[in-house]
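User: quick one
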Amino acid sequence: QVQLQESGPGLVKPAQTLSLTCTVSGGSVSSGSYYWSWLRQPAGKGLEWIGRIYTSGNSNYNPSLKSRVTISLDTSKNQFSLKLSSVTAEDTAVFYCARQIMYYGSGRGGPFDYWGQGTLVTVSS
Amino acid sequence: DIQMTQSPSSLSASVGERVTITCRASQGISNSLAWYQQKAGKAPKLLLQTATRLQSGVPSRFSGSGSGTDYTLVVSSLQAEDFATYYCQQYYSTPWTFGQGTKVEIK
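Assistant: Done. Structure below.
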């Protein structure tokens, strides 16, 4: 059973960098069959995809956040991480890490089949 | 970006009722659509992919249909554990986008 677990500070000051890590168990971030993504959800609102990374290290980001986002992979620890710079109160949200299915052959990304429990990050001074 | 619009935003229903939620994409997405269920304080759970394919372990009372830009999630006989918020998501093109959600409440 694949499990994902987010970790990181729950409070970040404005203008600073938010850093979160997702630890994967029961599966490997080195698997060529999946992408590894970050998403977020402000309180009472919908879901927003932030970006993803593949075992090769290739990453894709939501254009709305691209200038501020970096996602990286640590295969030795079976983890992937998110950095979001220059945060404001509008970045306050529950952040989720998730595994995205990759369709064999085309390499196209599919839905998110496993999710972490989510971690609330508040941006406040 | 592809905009996903769900309707209704919320609904009240009784146990045993049939519930229908619709999702419209701003352009054709070739059945590259997933449905998720999210309960309060929990992560979303994948229910269906490719518009119609039920995930393993998901009850058969959930079904999906649609094509092109218009898709539907049906719960044939609502159970107590189905009261939650439902989201559609397109994975036709990046950035992947979600509908705003449909909250299903107890009548």
